[in-house]
Design goal:
Largest sheet: 7 strands, parallel
Mean pLDDT: 89
Low-confidence stretches: none
Helix content: 25-40%
Structural class: alpha/beta
Number of helices: 10
Radius of gyration: 20 Å
C-alpha cells in the first residue's frame, strides 16, 4: 500500500490531477481503496479532493514554516496591507490579533497608541513590541517554538473573557467555496474563537493566498467584514466580495 500511495503522490505531482477510476484501473484495486489512498494524501496536505479525483496543492497544506522564514516573505506587500489597515482603524480601542507575520506588520503601526489594548496568543509580538505604548495581553497556553505562539485549551479559555472591537487575522489560503483556511488545526481553532469575540472581523491576506486551500477551515465568508490585500484581485474575486458584502481594500 505504501508503494502505491507513493506512486500516486508522484503521479499527481507530475500531472497536477488524478482520477479515482483511472487509478483503480492502473493498480487493479477497488475505487474505495483508491479513495482511502487519496484521503491519506489529503491528510498529509499534498492534495485537495475533487469530485471523482484529486488535484495537487500548489501550497502544501501542512506547511508550518518557521516564523522567521515566513516573516521575510513578500514583506513589501505585508507593509502595504498594514498601512491600509492603520489608516482605516487608527481609532480602535480593543482588538485581538493572531500570530501571522502580516498581522505583525500591522500591529507595529499601532504600537504607540496608548489607548489601545490588544489580546494575542503570539509570543513573538511581545518580543517585537517590547517598548510599545499600547497594552498587550497574552493568552498564555502551551508554547510552540516553531510558530512562536501559544495554543491549546488554556489559550482558548483565556480569550473567552474578552469582547473586542476588532480582530486581525491572517491565513494560509482563500477559496470561494472552502472559505478561509490555515495549516494548523490548533491555531485555526483559536482564530475561530477570536472572530467570535469581535464586533468587526478583518482578514489580512496578500495576493499569494487567493485561490489556495490549506489544511483546515477556520472561518466562513459570511463572518468577514473587511478583506485587505496588497494587489487588486481578479474580477471574480471583486464580484464575490461584493456579493458577500465584504469591504475589500487593496
Amino acid at each position: 500500500m505504501a508503494k502505491r500511495i507513493d506512486e500516486i503522490r508522484q503521479k499527481v505531482e507530475t500531472e497536477g490531477e488524478v482520477f479515482v477510476s483511472d487509478l483503480s484501473r492502473i493498480y487493479n484495486v477497488t475505487e474505495e481503496t483508491i479513495r482511502r489512498d487519496l484521503e491519506k494524501l489529503k491528510n498529509d496536505g499534498i492534495i485537495t479532493r475533487t469530485f471523482g479525483g484529486a488535484v495537487l496543492n500548489t501550497t502544501p497544506q501542512n506547511d508550518r514554516v518557521h516564523f522567521f522564514k515566513r516573516k521575510g516573505i513578500n514583506l513589501e506587500g505585508k507593509k502595504k496591507i498594514a498601512k491600509l489597515l492603520v489608516d482605516k482603524f487608527i481609532g480602535v480601542n480593543t482588538m485581538m490579533i493572531d500570530n501571522s507575520t502580516t498581522v505583525l506588520e500591522a500591529v507595529k503601526l499601532f504600537k504607540d497608541n496608548e489607548n489601545l489594548t490588544a489580546i494575542t496568543f503570539s509570543a513573538q509580538i511581545f518580543q517585537e513590541l517590547d517598548t510599545c505604548k499600547m497594552k498587550l495581553v497574552s493568552t498564555g497556553g502551551l508554547y510552540d517554538e516553531k510558530t512562536r505562539s501559544f495554543y491549546g485549551k488554556p489559550a482558548k479559555e483565556a480569550m473567552k473573557k474578552y469582547n473586542v472591537d476588532l480582530v486581525l487575522l491572517g491565513c494560509k489560503g482563500l477559496d470561494m467555496e472552502r472559505g478561509i483556511t490555515d495549516s494548523s488545526e490548533g491555531e485555526a481553532d483559536l482564530k475561530s474563537e477570536m472572530a467570535s469575540r469581535a464586533e468587526c472581523v478583518v482578514l489580512l491576506a496578500d495576493h499569494s493566498k487567493f485561490n489556495h486551500t490549506a489544511f483546515v477551515n477556520f472561518l466562513d465568508w459570511d463572518r468577514i467584514d473587511y478583506l485587505i490585500t496588497d494587489e487588486k484581485p481578479s474580477h471574480e474575486w471583486l464580484e464575490f466580495c461584493e456579493q458577500m458584502k465584504i469591504k475589500l481594500m487593496y
